[in-house]
Each structure stands twice: as structure tokens, then as C-alpha cells.
């Protein structure tokens, strides 16, 4: 049985959380995946987050010629992910690292805490904790003689975009950040719209979407009124059980029964990560970022809608007094920056493309312009 990472929108609340989905189909190597020998240096490294007593393990790729390189730290979205951010044969962080390093930009990517060769407990961590991991990566890179300490950036995908903003809002050692389909609006707003967009793309009628919208509202109400997780678990389980039959089948993620969906929801909503995500406003962090910011979204991203989130990021950065922000919506790309027909999650695994060359060029061109 093959295990793969998959971003799944569940009902109202798990906009960025990654669940493990099991597939019997063999996972083939994707066409964009590079193969050694690479025309650059690749080194396995470790660094420590002393604040959390966590050792993170990753891969640092360095251009073959030159020194004092600009560098990008890749930060994954929510859910337990390895340094390649692998899901169903796709390795987007490997593809990004390969492309940028060939362009003269060093890249550090690492296993999430508690995943792969990294220590720590993933399920006990919040986005704020993951930001301390990213800050530890920055501190480590400052010790490397090959790296230009003035040109250390963070590029985060999905929730990783928020992590990048959190880190940059309090660290002057970060030279730039890139939000790849990261949230700008509040979590409740992002996930409510997400569930409607994906249900619609999956063929749900407007009447069925109205049911989802109503259930979303009630779920948010329960979350707002209940802070004790033991009581929250009980109330959510009772609410989902009562409303299970009315939830439209076309709103289910691929391969999920209603029972599996609602069990996953209850477990997710009671985690520290979700409780933190529910309580904060990403705009508060973006408004405190003083370094250059690039925010990219696919126009067919149904999980973090471009029209909902990009304007908020751009406005927040400028409100904070930082005019160096670029906001770009890329036509035809989904949440993973793949060419997509509808953007529906069911298209992720079978897509021949791992990460659009258009998005890769947008990142590379912007970084090189900023670090000149």
C-alpha cells in the first residue's frame, strides 16, 4: 500500500491540514523530477532549534561556481511533510530547489520536525513553532561561508507562507519572503470559501452549497464559544453526527466516507495547530514585514483563493509601511502551481506537472532582481 501526502479540504475547517491518504496505485516518477548527477553541489545538513530542542535535517544545494550566494529556505504547508514536500510521486520542493540552484540561488529544504530525519513532535506544534524552525534555518545559514548573510530568504507554500510572514515579522535577518498560495485572510474566511469552491467544482448544486455554508457557520460558532478541547471534541462530534446525513456527498474529498471525514475534522480541530490558526489574523504578521515580499497564487487555486487572499497580503504589507510587495495571480494554476482544468483536488495526483515552469521563473526572476 502506497502512502502519499495530500492536501484535503474538509467540511469547514481543515484548509491547510495534510492527511495521509492511502492509494493502491503505484507512484511513478514525475517528468520534472531531476536525476543525478546534478550540475551543483548537494549536501545533507542538520541544524538545531535550541528554543524547541529540535534538530532539523535537510538538504542544502549550492551553485557549482561562485560564492556568497543568495539562498532560499523552503517551508512546507500544513501537515507532516518531508524535505521534498512529497505527495503521490510529486516532489515540488525538489523541483523548486533544482531550478533555483541552476539559476545561481542556493536552496535549503528540510524535513518537518518529527518527520523523516528531524526530531521533535509534529502534532504538538503550531505555525508559530514552525516559524522558530525557519528562524533556526536562517541562523544556520548565516554560519555558512558560501552564503551571503544579507540575502537569506524564505519561500513557504500554503501555511508555509504564513510561517514565512511570522518569521519575517520579528527577524531582521530575513532578506525577503515568498508566499506561495499562502493565506492572507483569516482562517475561518479562507476555509469557508474553500469548501464552497471545491464543492462547486465537484459538481455540487447551489442548494447543496447553501447547506455546506450553513453547517460551516454553525461549526465556526461552536469553535468560537468553546476553548476547552475536551468539551470541543464532544460538542463537535455530536454536531457532526446530527448533521452527517444532510452533508452533500459531492462535498466529500476524494476517497473519503462521511464518517472518515467527520472523524478527521474533529481530530484536526482539536490540535494546537488548528487552534492557533483559528485565533490569529495573517494580516497582522504581513503588516510587520519590512523586507521585500512576493505573493503568488494560481488563478484556479480552490484551497487558498487568489482573489480572497492576494489583495489582503498586498494591502497589509503596504499598511505596515513596506512598499516593496509584488502580488501576482498566475492563470490556470491550482493550489500546487500545476496546470489544472478545474483546480479540484482530485486532479493533483494524476497531473503530469509537479510545479509550473511559469511559477518557477516568476520566483527566480523576482529573487534575482531583489538580490542584485
Please describe the biggest sheet, giving its number of strands, its sense, and whether it closes into a barrel: 8 strands, mixed
Q: How large is the share of residues in beta strands?
A: 15-25%
- When the domains are counted, the total is 2
Mind telling me which CATH architecture of the largest domain this is? 3-Layer(aba) Sandwich
Overall average pLDDT: 90
Q: Which sequence of SSEs, written as H and E, runs from N to C?
A: EEEEEHEHEHEHHHHHHEHEH
What is the global morphology?
Answer: globular
Uncertain spans: 1-26
Q: Looking at this structure, what is the CATH superfamily of the largest domain?
A: Alpha/Beta hydrolase fold, catalytic domain
Q: How many DSSP-defined strands?
A: 10
Adjacency order of strands in the biggest sheet: 3-4-6-5-7-8-9-10
Which CATH class of the largest domain applies here? Alpha Beta
**What share of the residues lie within helices?**
25-40%
Features:
372 residues, 2 domains, alpha/beta, carboxylesterase activity, AB_hydrolase_Est10, 19% strand, two-stranded antiparallel sheet, 11 helices, eight-stranded mixed beta sheet, Rossmann fold
Tell me what the structure shows:
- It holds the Pfam family Hydrolase_4.
- Its EC number is 3.1.1.1.
- By secondary structure, this protein is α/β, with parallel strands linked by helices.
- It folds into two domains: 2-186 and 278-371, Rossmann fold (3-Layer(aba) Sandwich), CATH 3.40.50; 187-271, no CATH class.
- 38% of the residues lie in helices and 19% in strands.
- The chain is built from eleven helices and ten strands.
- The protein has an eight-stranded mixed sheet with strand order 3-4-6-5-7-8-9-10, sandwiched between helices. Strands 1-2 form a two-stranded antiparallel sheet.
- Strand 9, helix 10 and strand 10 (325-330) form a beta-alpha-beta unit.
- Helix 4 packs antiparallel against helix 5 and helix 6 packs antiparallel against helix 7.
- The longest helix is centred in the middle third of the chain and has 20 residues, at 206-225.
Amino acid at each position: 500500500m502506497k502512502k502519499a501526502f495530500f492536501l484535503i479540504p474538509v467540511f469547514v475547517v481543515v484548509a491547510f491540514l495534510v492527511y495521509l491518504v492511502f492509494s493502491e496505485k503505484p507512484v511513478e516518477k514525475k517528468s520534472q523530477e531531476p536525476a543525478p548527477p546534478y550540475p551543483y553541489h548537494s549536501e545533507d545538513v542538520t541544524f538545531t532549534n535550541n528554543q524547541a530542542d529540535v534538530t532539523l535535517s535537510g538538504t542544502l544545494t549550492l551553485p557549482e561556481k561562485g560564492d556568497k550566494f543568495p539562498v532560499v529556505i523552503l517551508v512546507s504547508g500544513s501537515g507532516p511533510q518531508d524535505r521534498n514536500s512529497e505527495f503521490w510521486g510529486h516532489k515540488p520542493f525538489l523541483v523548486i530547489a533544482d531550478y533555483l540552484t541552476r539559476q545561481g540561488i542556493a536552496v535549503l529544504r528540510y524535513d518537518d520536525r518529527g518527520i523523516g530525519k528531524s526530531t521533535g513532535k509534529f502534532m504538538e506544534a503550531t505555525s508559530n513553532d514552525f516559524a522558530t524552525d525557519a528562524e533556526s534555518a536562517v541562523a544556520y545559514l548565516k554560519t555558512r561561508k558560501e552564503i551571503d548573510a544579507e540575502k537569506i530568504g524564505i519561500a513557504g507554500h500554503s501555511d508555509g507562507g504564513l510561517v514565512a510572514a511570522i518569521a519575517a515579522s520579528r527577524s531582521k535577518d530575513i532578506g525577503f519572503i515568498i508566499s506561495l498560495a499562502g493565506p492572507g485572510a483569516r482562517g475561518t474566511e479562507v476555509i469557508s470559501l474553500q469548501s464552497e469552491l471545491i464543492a462547486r467544482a465537484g459538481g455540487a448544486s447551489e442548494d447543496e452549497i447553501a447547506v455546506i455554508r450553513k453547517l460551516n457557520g454553525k461549526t465556526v460558532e461552536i469553535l468560537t464559544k468553546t476553548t476547552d478541547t475536551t468539551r470541543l471534541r464532544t460538542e463537535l462530534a455530536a454536531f457532526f453526527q446530527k448533521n452527517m446525513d444532510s452533508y452533500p456527498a459531492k462535498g466529500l474529498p476524494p476517497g473519503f466516507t462521511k464518517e472518515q471525514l467527520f472523524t478527521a475534522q474533529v481530530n484536526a480541530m482539536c490540535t494546537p495547530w488548528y487552534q492557533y490558526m483559528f485565533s490569529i489574523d495573517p494580516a497582522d504578521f504581513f503588516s510587520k514585514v519590512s523586507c521585500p515580499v512576493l505573493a503568488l497564487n494560481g488563478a484556479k487555486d480552490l484551497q487558498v483563493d487568489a482573489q480572497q487572499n492576494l489583495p489582503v497580503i498586498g494591502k497589509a504589507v503596504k499598511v505596515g509601511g513596506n512598499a516593496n510587495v509584488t502580488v501576482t495571480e498566475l492563470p490556470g494554476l491550482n493550489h500546487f502551481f500545476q496546470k489544472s482544468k478545474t483546480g479540484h483536488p482530485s486532479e493533483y495526483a494524476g497531473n503530469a506537472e509537479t510545479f509550473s515552469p511559469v511559477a518557477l521563473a516568476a520566483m527566480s526572476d523576482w529573487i534575482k532582481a531583489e538580490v542584485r
